[in-house]
Amino acid sequence: MRLSRTTKYLLLAALVLGLAVIYFPLLVVLLNSFNADTTFGWPPSSFTLEWWGRAAENEGALNALWTSVQAGLAATAIALVLGTMAAFALQKYRFFGRNQVSLLIILPIALPGIVTGIALNNAFRTILGIDLGLFTAIVAHATFCIVVVFNNVVARLRRMGGNLEEASMDLGADGLTTFRLVTFPMLRSALLAGGLLAFALSFDEIIVTTFTLGTGLETLPIWILNNLFRPNQAPIVNVVAAVLILASTVPVYLAQRLSGDTTSGGRL
Question: Keyword Membrane on this protein (predicted)?
Answer without folding.
Answer: yes
